[in-house]
Specification:
Layout: E1 8-13, E2 26-31, H1 37-45, E3 63-67, E4 73-76, H2 87-103, E5 107-115, H3 122-131, E6 138-143, H4 150-167, E7 171-175, H5 184-194, H6 209-213, H7 233-236
Parallel strand pairs: 2-4, 2-5, 5-6, 6-7
Antiparallel strand pairs: 1-3, 3-4
The structure holds guanosine-5'-triphosphate and magnesium ion.
């Protein structure tokens, strides 16, 4: 059994007051509505029904916590950016997400899931800004990579990597597909390392496991994953929470 395969549903939270007490390290999955967060979590945990997946955007309306046998937590966050969500609910989640990212002491890494066809939206960039001061690692998953041709996926990967180098240097990025299981092993290694399971994966062939198959050379320039927190957890709580416009 892999480290992440031991994930089991723990509880849901509607507000910051409902969160389980901060303690074991946790990794959160954030992203736009329908980007593929719950599917990514399920692919990594190798349990198709663990987090709820839906064709209807805005399906995950709670913060869902999953506990690992070793004690860490995986957190499926509600998606943002879905226009048809009532304004009051949108504001509620904007406040909860920004405060959670900025103040949650035990959050040791962020997985930011983006639909590869719509990467780095304004709200994705807001998530990066909120989380950046903590200095903890970020893994950007360019999800639904199966929706693009291999060359288009590679192109987007390089473009996003270039932009991230400017706006969030602590972020690494890789291709991902829950459907075709592209990049699952790489993401698993990175996240498991954050949670203390295994040594950090060496910077190495890109998630281009799928690209290998196509005969393309793997990229060598992926930034290392599994960085350690630069600040003590107690410093996280001192960051002021800002509201999402
Ligand atoms: N082709 C393809 N479709 C995917 C992939 N991952 C997710 N999907 C589909 O995208 C839709 C949304 O997936 P979810 O995992 O529920 O997305 P989410 O980000 O959790 O959505 P919310 O909880 O609503 O914010 C579903 O119809 C999934 O089947 C993928 O890798 N490839
Ligand atoms: Mg979801």
């Amino acid at each position: 059994m892999t480290f992440l395969e031991s994930a089991r549903f723990l509880r849901s939270a509607h507000d910051l007051g409902d969160l389980p007490p901060a303690g074991p390290p946790e990794v959160a999955f954030a992203g736009r509505s329908n980007a593929g967060k719950s599917s990514a979590l399920n692919a990594l945990a190798r349990q198709p029904g663990l987090a709820h997946v839906s064709k209807t955007p805005g399906r995950t309306q709670l913060i869902n916590f999953f506990r690992l046998a070793a004690g860490g937590l995986l957190v499926d966050l509600p998606g943002y950016g879905f226009a048809r969500v009532p304004e009051a609910l949108r504001r509620h989640w904007a406040r909860v997400l920004s405060e959670y990212l900025q103040t949650r002491e035990s959050l040791c890494g962020l997985v930011l899931v983006m639909d590869i066809r719509h990467p780095l939206t304004a709200l994705d960039q807001a998530m990066l800004r909120w989380f950046r001061p903590a200095g903890s690692p970020i893994l950007v998953l360019l999800a639904k990579a199966d929706k693009l041709s291999r060359s288009a996926a590679q192109r987007t990967l390089h473009e996003v990597r270039g932009r991230l180098a400017e706006i969030a240097p602590m972020a690494s990025v890789q291709l991902f597909s829950a459907l075709k299981r592209i990049g699952v092993e790489d993401a698993d290694r990175t996240i498991s390392a954050w949670l203390g399971a295994v040594p950090a994966a060496p910077a190495g062939p890109d998630t281009d496991v799928a690209m290998h198959a196509s005969g393309e050379l793997p990229s060598k320039d992926r930034r290392g994953s599994g960085r350690k927190n630069k600040k003590a957890p107690s410093q996280r709580g001192k960051l002021g929470a800002k509201r999402l416009k």
